[in-house]
Write a structure and sequence with these properties.
The protein is 88% helix and 0% strand. It contains 3 helices and no strands. Helix 1 runs antiparallel to helix 2 (81-170).
Length: 189
């Protein structure tokens, strides 16, 4: 008799295996959706960073030019003091804005980096969970095979032998040879 397992829908192990298979599918879908979400977030941050870098560079250049204008304005005449004061204030606000933008971009990079790291940790946790579940299913299957199925086969073989022995013991006595041939001759052509 081959050792292939036959799946029976009335067998509880069949349903346990179906639930485990469905769990694997759900876990795989969750992992894929997490990966897609993280990928989209990283792409969005990269696009934002690429759009902000030229702006930051322009603002930096403008800030430097503003400082040069302020220095020249002070050297030209006293009458431009009020004007250079206002220009210095504007430059200060502009450089503060640039510093704030740089800080926000850095914080955004840190948030994305942390999110990506957390996502990697979660994927690793899910992977370890799947591995552990697989090991448990394999050990449970092996346990059931050795402790339930193999003893049940042996018991079934013993019971079949016992039944055959009882059939031999309680079988009617055989007919005499002449009686058997007499009946058989009647049926022959």
């Amino acid at each position: 008799m081959p050792l292939a397992l036959q799946m029976n829908t009335e067998d509880p192990m069949f349903w346990v295996m179906v639930v485990i298979a469905l769990s694997f599918i759900v876990i795989a879908l969750a992992m894929v959706s997490i990966a897609v979400f993280v990928s989209r977030a990283v792409k969005s941050v990269n696009r934002l960073e690429q759009k902000l870098e030229p702006l930051v560079e322009r603002v930096t250049v403008m800030s430097e030019q503003g400082r040069q204008i302020a220095v020249q304005g002070k050297q030209i005449a006293e009458q431009f003091n009020a004007m250079s004061g206002h220009l210095s204030t504007a430059i200060m606000h502009l450089s503060e804005s640039v510093a704030i933008i740089k800080n926000e971009v850095l914080e955004l990079k840190e948030v994305v980096s942390d999110s990506a790291e957390q996502a990697r940790d979660k994927v690793e946790l899910v992977s370890r969970t799947i591995d552990r579940t697989h090991r448990q299913v394999a050990s449970t299957t092996e346990f059931i095979q050795s402790k339930v199925i193999e003893p049940a086969r042996e018991l079934a073989a013993i019971m079949a032998g016992f039944r055959r022995g009882l059939e031999v013991l309680v079988a009617p006595s055989p007919k005499p040879i002449n009686q058997i041939y007499g009946e058989d001759e009647m049926f022959i052509g």
